[in-house]
């Protein structure tokens, strides 16, 4: 429409073909009353038609009026069936058989007519729909929205907007981030959840659609919810068959790939141009600018630069040399591996959300233990990673075209090493949001990042002096698999052909003893399993299943055996690990012979620990109730170490035998609280502790996302008088957390703003966790994953 408006303004012969009976079908199909956003705000609108943020109806009214005023040649109900001919002499055949002759073609057909379909049992049932026209048409229904892009979020908000409708709205997000959605929409969604209007289910996917209910695969296993209607908004893809029939090539064979385009939006079929969502630029402002620009190009205005040119020029101004924006973009696209299948238009958008930096030889790009979840790509030069904190001379090179920082992106942990420029270097730093969007929209980029992260994880886990070349065969054949909670990875008695590395989550190992499954061990992320049957050429000696939703890397067994033959030191490591696991088996078998109840208690205790968050913890507080005297010194010490606010509720939580898991942070391997923190206030410390810094804005997202209820929103109380003043003069509330009454009475200027409060493992306080130090009987202990089994054995032996 914007292209046609520009053609009309220039007096060019044109016709706008629209297959429906109205203009702007995508906007027309937006739900009634939808707010249409005009983002990015910093981008200048370049069009003969007006556009500003507003209601769907107002936007359409403006465009319909201006289209008529501009005398744009529009033909409605004119769907194109095929395009034949060549540049300067195309013939477009309409569905009715009529032919339209034209010199050039601009395709702005979008992707909405080709939605991604739900792929699970029952997906064809009649209560599954892919479009929402009027949210007000549904009353008192349990509705599940699948997909957390802009369309899914806006549908969910519309269905939950009017409390009179009494809809129960749930939205499913298969991950923890909202990579495809605008920040404004994410903010509205989390506010709606806080108000109780919508339930957000992260790390959740549909497993089976049934009449009146929906079976879900969740982080903790399968769950059934009531569901009267499903709105599936999982994105859409280009109508590839039609485009390829027109002679248009794509950037790759991936289903979500986009057409190959020149800077003038011309496809590989000369004379046919593509703009808008079909080009990979779905935002309305971008689409309208492209419509304007492509007609200017066709009219001979070759000097015209895109509207985002000044912003990109400012970003690249400090880089070496005198390259233009186009030259820098070409260099980034050709030099950086993960950008190989990114279109020129997508690359421009990506650069707007990224930073480009130059470094001299020896300059630090980031330090070990720095916070950061961004991803770096090397456009020019190379870097060196300091792998030994005690010897900075020991480094690993990363050369031009590769990436680094992927650990922070995937796990949210602090930087694991210092990285310096090895020579004059230019890097592109992608924000976490930009990197996740790249992974979500360009499958080839996602695969490249996954391959590099797998390689580096294997080198870290196996060690033994291995190099990238040593594990190249394994990486090439590696396969990432997702396992839902409780799903079996290896079954006892099966043939052992492959090896598995736990990339994310955790596994439990069980063995049938006396006809009952007995817990053997717990395997956190970073462990590997399956080597015993592989090396022994025998059957699996135990069953391994996911404790929570997990990711594993499957490594082909024969390739791993060839690696063992080449690397004897790796074989020695594997044999040592096997011996340790056999010791665990022997411990269980031995206890069973002496007293079967002891083994049952050990197994049940270990399973209890996993069920209560140990499966994803890196550090958890446990209390031995045989030793605990209920003095509450642990809570008081916690409060006195943290501005008068305790991060611990000793009495809350669950107990098995005499082991109690109080309400206190588990410091999860992949913290749920980090999933949607607007100011990025939640970080990992050098010892794995998850901490919240002073940039917290009190939005409460972390409190809502934590499955263990260990985060609360509170304000820091006024300073208390000293302990001596309390002891000798009776001033102040005494040790521990002051009462709300005292806080209110002594607040200097009214209540302070609330912030998120949680255990930080006493980070920065010498001596370690105050709760453990203050326990007079030794009942309180902090347990790391490698000590979980020792705790279970302790319960058995006592």
Automatic annotation (TrEMBL):
Domain 4Fe-4S ferredoxin-type: 619-651, 656-687, 688-716, 753-786
GO molecular function, one term: 4 iron, 4 sulfur cluster binding
Top-rank taxon, per record: Bacteria
InterPro entries listed in its UniProt record: 4Fe4S_Fe-S-bd (IPR017896), 4Fe4S_Fe_S_CS (IPR017900), cNMP-bd_CS (IPR018488), cNMP-bd_dom (IPR000595), cNMP-bd_dom_sf (IPR018490), FAD/NAD-bd_sf (IPR036188), RmlC-like_jellyroll (IPR014710), RnfB_subfamily (IPR050294)
Keywords tagged on the record: 4Fe-4S, Electron transport, Iron, Iron-sulfur, Metal-binding, Transport
Keyword Electron transport appears in the UniProt entry: yes
Residue ranges constituting the Cyclic nucleotide-binding domain according to the UniProt record: 338-439, 462-581
Claim: 4Fe-4S is one of the keywords in the record: yes
Matches recorded under PANTHER family: DIMETHYLSULFOXIDE REDUCTASE CHAIN B, OXIDOREDUCTASE
Name this protein carries in UniProt: Cyclic nucleotide-binding domain-containing protein
Organism, scientific name: Sphingomonas tagetis
């Amino acid at each position: 429409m914007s292209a046609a408006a520009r053609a009309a303004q220039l007096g060019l012969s044109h016709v706008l073909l629209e297959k429906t009976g109205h203009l702007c079908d995508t906007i027309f199909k937006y739900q009634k009353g939808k707010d249409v956003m005009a983002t990015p705000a910093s981008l200048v609108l370049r069009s003969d038609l007006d556009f500003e943020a507003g209601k769907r109806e107002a936007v359409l009214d403006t465009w319909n009026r201006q289209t008529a005023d501009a005398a744009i040649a529009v033909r409605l109900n004119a769907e194109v069936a095929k395009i034949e001919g060549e540049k300067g002499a195309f013939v477009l055949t309409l569905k009715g058989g009529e032919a339209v002759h034209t010199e050039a073609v601009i395709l702005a057909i979008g992707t909405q007519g080709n939605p991604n379909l739900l792929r699970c049992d029952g997906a064809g049932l009649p209560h599954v729909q892919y479009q929402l026209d009027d949210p007000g048409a549904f009353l008192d229904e349990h509705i599940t929205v699948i997909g957390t892009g802009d369309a899914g979020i806006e549908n969910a908000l519309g269905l939950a907007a009017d409390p009179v409708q009494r809809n129960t709205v749930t939205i499913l997000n298969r991950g923890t981030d909202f990579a495809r959605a605008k920040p404004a929409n994410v903010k509205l969604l989390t506010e709606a959840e806080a108000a109780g209007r919508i339930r957000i289910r992260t790390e959740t996917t549909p497993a089976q659609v049934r009449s009146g209910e929906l079976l879900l695969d969740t982080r903790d296993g399968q769950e059934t919810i009531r569901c009267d209607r499903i709105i599936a908004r999982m994105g859409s893809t280009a109508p590839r068959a039609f485009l390829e029939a027109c002679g248009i090539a794509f950037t790759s064979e991936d289903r979500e790939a986009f057409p190959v385009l020149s800077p003038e939006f011309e496809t590989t079929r000369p004379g046919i141009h593509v703009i808008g969502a079909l080009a990979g630029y779905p935002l309305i402002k971008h689409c309208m600018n492209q419509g304007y620009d492509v007609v200017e190009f066709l009219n001979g205005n070759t000097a015209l630069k895109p509207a985002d040119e000044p912003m990109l020029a400012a970003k690249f101004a400090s880089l070496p040399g005198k390259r233009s924006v186009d030259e820098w973009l070409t260099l980034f696209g050709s030099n950086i591996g993960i950008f190989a299948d990114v279109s020129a238009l997508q690359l421009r958008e990506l650069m707007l959300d990224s930073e480009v930096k130059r470094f001299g030889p020896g300059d630090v790009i980031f330090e070990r233990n720095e916070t950061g979840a961004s991803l770096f790509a090397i456009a020019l030069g190379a870097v060196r990673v300091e792998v030994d904190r005690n010897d900075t001379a020991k480094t690993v090179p990363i050369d031009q075209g590769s990436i680094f920082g992927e650990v922070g992106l995937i796990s949210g942990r602090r930087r694991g090493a210092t990285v310096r420029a090895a020579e004059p270097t230019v890097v592109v730093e992608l924000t976490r949001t930009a990197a996740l969007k790249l992974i979500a929209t360009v499958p080839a980029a996602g695969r490249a990042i996954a391959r590099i992260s797998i390689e580096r994880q294997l080198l870290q886990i196996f060690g033994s002096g291995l190099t990238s070349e040593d594990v190249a065969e394994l990486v090439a054949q590696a396969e990432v698999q997702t396992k839902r909670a409780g799903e079996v990875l290896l079954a006892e008695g099966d043939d052992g052909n492959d090896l598995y590395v736990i990339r994310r989550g955790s596994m439990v190992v069980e063995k049938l003893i006396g006809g009952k499954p007995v817990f053997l061990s717990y395997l956190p992320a970073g462990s590997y399993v399956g080597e015993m049957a592989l090396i022994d050429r025998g059957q699996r000696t135990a069953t391994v299943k996911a404790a929570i939703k997990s990711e594993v890397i499957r490594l082909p067994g024969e390739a791993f055996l060839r690696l063992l033959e080449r690397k004897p030191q790796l074989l020695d490591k594997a044999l040592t690990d096997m011996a340790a696991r056999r010791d665990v088996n022997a411990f269980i078998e031995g206890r069973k012979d002496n007293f079967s109840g002891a083994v049952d208690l050990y197994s049940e205790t270990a399973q209890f620990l996993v069920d209560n968050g140990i499966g994803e913890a890196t550090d958890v507080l446990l209390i031995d109730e045989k030793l605990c005297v209920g003095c509450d010194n642990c809570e008081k010490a916690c409060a006195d170490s943290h501005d008068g606010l305790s991060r611990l509720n000793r009495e809350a939580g669950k107990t098995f035998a005499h082991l109690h898991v109080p309400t206190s942070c588990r410091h999860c391997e992949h913290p749920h609280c980090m999933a949607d923190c607007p100011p990025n206030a939640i970080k990992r410390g050098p010892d794995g502790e998850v901490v919240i810094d002073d940039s917290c804005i009190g939005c409460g997202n972390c409190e809502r996302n934590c499955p263990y209820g260990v985060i609360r929103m509170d304000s820091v109380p006024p300073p208390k008088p000293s302990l001596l003043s309390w002891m000798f003069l009776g001033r102040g509330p005494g040790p521990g957390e002051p009462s709300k009454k005292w806080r209110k009475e002594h607040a200097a200027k009214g209540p302070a703003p609330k912030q998120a409060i949680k255990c930080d493992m006493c980070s920065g306080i010498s001596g370690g966790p105050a709760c453990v130090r203050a326990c007079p009987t030794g009942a309180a202990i902090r347990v790391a994953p490698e000590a979980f089994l020792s705790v279970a054995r302790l319960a058995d032996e006592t």
